[in-house]
Specification:
By secondary structure, this protein is an alpha/beta fold. The protein has helices at about 1-25, 35-40, 60-65, 80-90, 105-115, 135-145, 195-220, and strands at about 25-30, 45-50, 70-75, 90-95, 120, 150-155, 160, 170, 175-180. The protein starts with a helix and ends in an 8-residue tail after the last helix.
Length: about 230
């Protein structure tokens, strides 16, 4: 067990170092970042929302945004420990839990982080999909905390899309990339069930459209719609 732990820690360090090296080599383009920078400069914490398959460059994009303390919701599944350790090398604090396993524990941890003034991060189609199907957790979190949800995605001209459930995109070093920051979405604390269902459809459509637009802007062949 100890050897497995050491191997996992080393692999997480290598994964973080690989992503850091790739990020440093890329030719970046951003859209929509200035309003989000203004929010953060005014002391407004945010909830970052991004599809699981477009996670690879979010830590670097957040750092370029001038990001500070951030807590990310990560599944209690065994694979989640590797992701938590890798994200720790980027300065992300892991809150363990998900909409399926440890949901209550995860919600409590994210609320605690929000009260401490941390930005929050969540993959609303995680931890195991379906791909680009938005689960209600991110909206519940916004309703409970009062923080705005900021959808973000990226695409790269050249990269590897893995044959995993999430179609994980890893950019090749030196590629051109585009990062799109969406308009903040706030959820009223007294939102009804019908209003929440409408917001769920709205945000899901917005995030899918955002991902497709990033692919078009960078010249990547469009993936099949889900």
């Amino acid at each position: 067990m100890r050897l497995e732990g050491r191997w996992q820690s080393s692999a997480a360090w290598l994964a973080a170092a690989l992503l850091r090296g790739i990020a440093a080599s890329l030719r970046w383009r951003e859209e929509g970042a200035e309003p989000i920078r203004a929010l953060r400069a005014g002391g407004q914490p945010i909830i970052l929302a991004f599809w699981h398959g477009r996670l690879a460059l979010i830590p670097a994009a957040y750092r370029r945004l001038g990001g500070g303390q951030v807590s990310i919701l990560i599944s209690e599944h065994r694979d989640g420990e590797f992701i938590a350790q890798a994200m720790a090398h980027w300065g992300y604090a892991a809150v363990r839990g998900s909409s399926r396993r440890g949901a209550f524990k995860g919600a409590k941890g994210m609320l605690r982080a929000a009260r401490a003034g941390s930005d929050l991060a969540i993959t609303p189609d995680g931890p195991r999909g379906p791909r680009e199907v938005l689960q209600m957790g991110v909206l519940e979190l916004a309703r409970w905390t009062g923080l705005p949800i900021v959808p973000v995605t990226f695409s790269s001209r050249w990269g590897k899309i893995f044959s995993s459930w999430d179609h994980f995109l890893l950019p090749w070093p030196g590629s051109r990339v585009v990062v799109l920051w969406g308009e903040p979405l706030r959820v009223a604390s007294d939102a009804s069930a019908a209003e929440m269902a409408h917001l769920q459809e709205q945000l899901q459509a917005q995030m899918r459209s955002q991902r497709r637009r990033a692919d078009v802007l960078i010249g990547r062949a469009l993936e099949e719609d889900v």
